[in-house]
Amino acid sequence: MTIELGATTTYQNVAAVAFDLSSTLLPVNIISFVAHRKKDFEVSLEWSTAQEKDNSHFVIERSYDGITFDNIGVVNGHGNSQQIINYTFLDNLNTLNKAFYRLHQFDFNGASEYSKTVSIFSYSLNNMVK
Question: What confidence tens digit (pLDDT) does each residue in 89-112 have?
């Protein structure tokens, strides 16, 4: 067996290899992020983290075209945790149109990352008839 690390070092006949991944783990591990329409103009955003390191806060962003996002709220993080933490944010100013949401997570040192983008479809016409 040959293992190449980088572009210049080659090791042959290696029985075991150990890597230190502690420096490459993401500071916040978001394990789920979903959007649910609650009623006419309300959308509930729910996400969970499995790990947090120096997590300051999440900025919740919304878009109606999937390209241009606006900040619509902030949820404080839990700092440091090795447990699953559940978060919820209620967007009560949503229209009945399709919307896109993402999280912009900030560490205490100002570093940040974006979550995946989730979308919610237009409100069904069947649900609008009373």
Answer: 999 887 778 899 999 999 999 999
Q: Residue 3: inside a domain, yes or no? A: no
Q: What is the total count of domains within the chain?
A: 1
Indicate the SS3 state at residue 109. coil
33: part of which helix (H) or strand (E)?
A: strand 28-39
C-alpha distances (whole Å) from 8 to each of 3, 16, 27, 111 are: 11, 20, 30, 32
Whether 31 is in a domain gets the answer yes
3-state SS, residue 74: strand
Provide the 3-class DSSP secondary structure of residue 8: coil
Residue 72 lies in a domain: yes
Query: Model-level pTM?
Result: 0.74
CATH number at residue 38: 2.60.40.10
